[in-house]
Amino acid sequence: VLYPERVPNSGGFSDLDVWQARRVAAQNLHDLAFYRPA
Predict the structure, then answer these.
(1) Smallest Cα–Cα separation from 1: which of 15, 11, 14, 13?
(2) Any residues with CB less than 8 A from the CB of 7 and at least 6 apart, and which?
């Protein structure tokens, strides 16, 4: 699903903002798990 328009929802965040935040969080968690110091 594509979101050509950034329409804020009741929380003040657009679906795209939420998707990007979740993607960044998932990437950060992956990096922490993968590059965890010994």
Answers:
(1) 15
(2) 14, 15
